[in-house]
Amino acid sequence: MKLVAHFTSFLNDTVNLNATRITQLEDSVEALKDVIRDSDWEPRVITFEEQGSWAHQTIIKPVYRRAFDADLLVIIEPVDGWDAKTYLSTLRSVFANHGTYEDKVRRFSHCVTIEYAGERRVDIAPCIRERNGVPGHEVCNHTSNAFEPSEPEAYTTWLRRRNEWTGGNGLKKVTRLLKYLRDIKATFTCKSVLLTTLLGMRITVADATLADPFVDVPTALKTIVDRLDDWLQLHTTKPNVANPVLASELFSDLWDDAQYANFREKIHEYRGWIDDAFDEVDRDESIGKWRRVFGEEFAADAVTKAAGLVSESVRLYSDSVGFAHGASDDLVALVSRYGLAVLPPGFNTLPHKQRPIWRPSPYGGYPVTISVSLHTGRNGVKLAEVASGSGPLAKNQSLRFSVRGPGGAMFDDHRHKVYWRITNTDREALNANALRGGFEQANDGTSRWEGLEYRGVHSAEAFVVRRNDNMLVGHSAPFYVVVG
Asked: Model confidence over 367-388: pLDDT tens digits?
């Protein structure tokens, strides 16, 4: 399911750099330009140009409270006798000798960077026009003391044209989404200029006449990632990826062979997840699958609403199937009266449940069952064996969940890892910010202890993963825990 409205909100609220930060960036850059203009720096400044993600409008909000960065080129005339190092060292001196920036300036191989207390960074790079009378631009490499060809304006034009061919800024939005995916997953390495180029190369002039592949954001995402994966699967070893406007510059040099192989593998995996979420017809299941791709911020409001209002949805379902109920009956009261039959279809696929991230074994899985015992507390006195859906159980006690394989045998934890998906529902868990639904490791061999804290009907599921290939080889049915 495409969930276009959720993608719009996700981009606006989570992915895109917010307007306040953009304004702060623009104000900072104007001040930096004034410092350079008012200084005695010898090169004559022709103009300033935005560069990189800022110029391409693919800059995103930083994840995990990191600083975001923007690139500014200073287009200058050459100075007779200056080597590459001199352009950078003298530009650094301009800011090092300025009272406002002396503690904020650093020099790197190709730029001078102004850092604003972990909030943002501005990389300022000298870009020399027509050095030695040769048409074109060059940037400076302080490490090698060399001038390097660069065509930033042409690259930006190349990228903007391809974005226009997708209509509705499809390429820009997909690029932001995949940069966000890269940053939150941290499972592959791909510098922004390389990732942006790879995505732009998937768009051709023929796309300008094809509306359907880019009709909305999720469709554009599926189209471009599918094309990227198809191309990567044709290249088992690292291919050359040249700057499309400067053939001598190989962006693929930003990878080593292992990084490319990993990127190829991860894009193939995420392509499968994206296609799965896109094709899913059940709304809640589709939300859960998109969250597997983009994390818990995707459709967060819809997810918490669905999880917190299960009593209301169960009352509606009970009306439709003839289970009588009172106006104040909640989920616990209805399950206590009618059993698990009162749970509506889809209760086990609530969207706040994380979807499995492991590849299922192509040979099928083991039968997996869960047994549960009630205790006075963790490692406390055993009170009883508990059946799924029984109760309600009193709070402030503990359950021990144990997993068994074929014939009731225990899984060898040297060969298998057992993950537990513990999912809470209804208002008490919602109000305590304790809906959970993620994967957690066993905390007692292959078993797991859980305390009883929130009124509701909760669930536990066991996932068995083979250690040597990280494949899912078993998944239990949900065990329902009714807490009064």
From this structure: 999 999 999 999 999 999 999 9
